[in-house]
Amino acid sequence: MANYQHILVAVDFSKEFEAVLAKAVEQQKLMSARMTLVHVVEYTGAMYTGEIPLPEDLDLDQRLAKQAETKLQAMIHDHNLKNTSLLVEIGTPKREIVRVAEEQSADLIILGSHGRHGLQLLLGSTANGVLHLAKCDVLAIRVESE
Ligand code: AMP
Prior knowledge:
The protein is an alpha/beta fold.
């Protein structure tokens, strides 16, 4: 494999994700790369199709982003990750992951083949989308889910 310098790891906090992280860390060590963990809070406003107008001060996305930041910090601490930073974005996971990879000049994106979206597709929707949109290399770690 090429010698990558900046690995972007897409974290969805699913139970299966631990295996993805373990392999990402292996690669990071092999390549002495730096690593960025990114989680995307799926934009809730866009999913809302109800009749009742949402209160204008609804800052659910911001609160979820704050929680995600805390969880990523805990992940870095608990796994004693070195040379690793974190980012939380709000939007559509595949688009934000690809955008952040470009913005941060990551040369490899690592994600799970499937996450919370299960096995309906050959590759999960995020993995599939990132593979199509990314300008850098993508490593999809095979995830077995029931
Ligand atoms: P999916 O295709 O959504 O089932 O998920 C496949 C992989 O995409 C997961 O194992 C994660 O690596 C990544 N992923 C999914 N959702 C997110 C998210 N909201 N933020 C960051 N990464 C994600």
